[in-house]
Each structure stands twice: as C-alpha cells, then as structure tokens.
Give the backbone structure.
Amino acid sequence: EAEEILRNALEDLEGLLGPNSSDALECLSYLASVMRDLGKYDESETMNRHALEVRDKVLGKDHPDTLTSANNLALVLQYQGKYDESETVNRRALEGWERILGAGHPDTLISVSHLAIVLRRQGKYSGSEAMNRRALEDREEVLGPDHPDTLTSLNNLAIVLEYQGKHGESEKMKRRALEGREKVLGPDHPLTLASLNNLAIALEYQGKYGESETMHRRALEGREKVLGPDH
C-alpha cells in the first residue's frame, strides 16, 4: 500500500514540478526506502543512484540531502552484499557529514556505525573495531551511556571483538549492553532478550557453560512470555 501511494505521488510530482525537483527527489527517496524494506533491492538501488546523481549536480556533494542519498545507497548496496562499493559510498558520506556537522554529531556517528558494519562484513575486523570504538565513545559522550544508539554500538563492538577471538572483552561489552537494555527497555523487550542470548553465546565460547545455560533459559522464558510457546 505504501509503495502504491508513493508511486502515485511521485508520478504527480514529476508531472507538476519535473523529475529533478526537490519534492520529487524526496518522494523518490522515500519510495526507494520502502522498496528496500520490501526486499526489492535492485529497484531501490536504481532509485537511490538517481537521487544521489541529481542531488550531487543540483545541490552539491556536501548538501545534507545529497549525503542522505549516499547513506541510503550505501545501505542498499550492503543489503545486496556489494560491500566494496558500499564501503566507498559510506566513506564518502562520512567525510561529508564530518565536514558539515563535525566528527561527534549524531548523524555523523550513524555513518561511522554503518561503515563499521560494512567493514566487518568484509572481514576487515581491525578497521571495524576502530570504527565501533569511535562510535561508542562519541555516543557515550554526546548521547549518554544508556541511549539506545549507545547500546547498539556496545553490541556492534562486542560482535566484532568476538569475531577476533577477544571473548573476554566481548563478554564485558555484552554485559553492559544487557544491563543498559534492561534498564531502558525492560527485561522482556526483544532487544533485551537478544542481548541475553548474545551474552550466553559469549559465555559458551569461554567454557562458562553453567552461566551460559542460565542466560539461554532466561532468554527462552522471556520469549515464551512475550511471543508464546509456539512462536
């Protein structure tokens, strides 16, 4: 339904204002995001490329709308496993946000976090770790230790540490993420339960089977409570 509404709106805006008008491009960007969420990645990529190319020419490479288009294109490339190009576009977006907003701005840190994920998917673990540490440190300072974005950075850092066999530090980060999510979201929130499961895995890697089993049981009981036993 959202796709149909946006397609009709886009057709009207392109007819009235032209395909390269700011309103038409904004509508196109929304439609591209919907297509991505529907799993229609090829079409989403095409739309995001068009929006980025036009905004580059009309608004300039460092305009916020242009950088948003770069972020969107990088994300859909990542979803398709096109990690090399996604990294390139992510770095371009990050450099732009740093120039216009500064290194510690929340929007800049979103790009830092996205780049960290792409680097991890490529197996560039040390680079991913560095980006995740930067995102975590700056989010703690700017947003606070219990902000959802800060807790996401904790979890992302824990994952890349685990990939490198740094299980002790990964466990520490996962405990912090779990404690924060329990405090902010409550013990039965899906993200809290995911953190329980993540911590259980970290404990299992280290041979701490008793505590790992306890965490797995807590996660299972929480999911049965929230989703039902037959989910």
In short: Residues 1-101 form a domain with the Serine Threonine Protein Phosphatase 5, Tetratricopeptide repeat fold (CATH 1.25.40.10). The CA atoms of residues 224 and 231 lie 8 Å apart. The radius of gyration is 20 Å.
